[in-house]
Amino acid sequence: MARSMTRAKDPAAGRVAFVELFYDLVFVFAITQLSHLLLHHYTLQGALEAGLLMLAIWWVWMYTTWALNWLDPTRGPVRMMIWTSMLLGLFMSMSVSDAFGERGLVFALSFVAMQLGRSLFTAWAFADQASHRRNFLRIAAWMAASGVFWISGGLAHGEARLALWIVALGIEYMGPWARYWTPGLGASSVAEWDVRGEHIAERCGLFVIICLGETLLINGATFAEMEWTGPGIAAFLVNFLGSVAMWWLYFHIGHERGARAIEHSEDPGRIARVAFTYAHLPIIAGIVVSAVAAELIIAHPLGHTGWGVAASILGGPALFLVGNHWFKALTARWQPLSHLVGIGLFALSLVAVPWLSPLGLGGLALAILALVAAWEWLSLGAGRRETV
């Protein structure tokens, strides 16, 4: 039975299944809740809390992606695991807005149940494949250790909750680097993580689409409720074109090249761990911050630009470029100079903050993204895409 729950070895078996897309709908809601939390608690404390929750949401989604790289989502028990995770994910998502208030314990319990439950299920599904089974038993042990701090944080309040959850998140993020060393089971070998690059790349691309979709939803929903003036229309277009520019920068070359790099690597697990698991963090964070910036720009296009507003308008795209640079540098043979120049231009743009409105600063951010995209396209144009 366990063997029947794993994917076949042929390439067609690595395609993303519809039930995986169904599962992603929970995270559409989670990202919406996350961006609204940051927008309504737009302080340093709010940014820290939203950042911690974003790391947790990304981590639980990514671990499911890794598990489904091996498990066959067309099998009944696997689908039951996915649907159970969806239900728990809904409770986790519904708790985001008050995770540092009354619903902290609900968030913690839902998160731990998803992480630990999925790991134990996958270990059971690999009962006849000893190396994979040991890997997921190691992961389950690490999830149990972090779960103590998640649940303790959910029972605590204020700064104690934040501190305990930082420790919990630190344990989870250190797991892959420590190769999940566990007493009695030892450490895993990266050679054992024989992942399908196309599947992981497609899943990560879909998560990027989810986050970009949030920027479009905020842009459209905010603009629909306001008077359609000239500055408002300009802000709407700047936000829309910014989303298009981010889509282009991620998908035009880097996404496909990342999939090929894993497929043709002698050590696919190491590349997938760094390029897709960690390097995507600033990409996702940048898009979420940009979604908040979209609301600020369109709500007050000609208003005063304080440093807090500027942090999201410039910081979101800059984070996105940092992540893209990291991701592309890992999957190519060179550092993308266009991205380094773009990051430098975002740093230089800070001098313009006192003189530009939110709309003007958003236009400047769009211009930098467009410059980087055009540079990359001219350097690695469509005719060379298959050879990069």
Notable characteristics:
single chain, 388 residues, mainly alpha, 14 helices, disordered C terminus
Mean pLDDT: 89
Radius of gyration: 21 Å
- Provide the β-strand percentage band: under 5%
N→C terminal distance: 42 Å
Helix and strand string, N-terminal first? HHHHHHHHHHHHHH
Low-confidence stretches: 383-388
Task: Give an account of the 3D structure.
With 388 residues, this protein is an all-alpha fold. It has helices spanning 18-40, 44-70, 76-95, 104-125, 130-155, 158-177, 197-224, 230-251, 254-263, 268-278, 280-299, 307-331, 337-348, 358-379. The two termini are 42 Å apart. Mean pLDDT is 89; it is low at 383-388.
Mind sketching the topology for me?
Blueprint: H1 18-40, H2 44-70, H3 76-95, H4 104-125, H5 130-155, H6 158-177, H7 197-224, H8 230-251, H9 254-263, H10 268-278, H11 280-299, H12 307-331, H13 337-348, H14 358-379
Helix pairs in contact: 1-2, 1-3, 1-7, 1-11, 2-4, 2-6, 2-7, 3-4, 4-5, 5-6, 7-8, 7-9, 7-11, 8-11, 8-14, 9-10, 9-12, 10-12, 11-12, 12-13, 12-14, 13-14
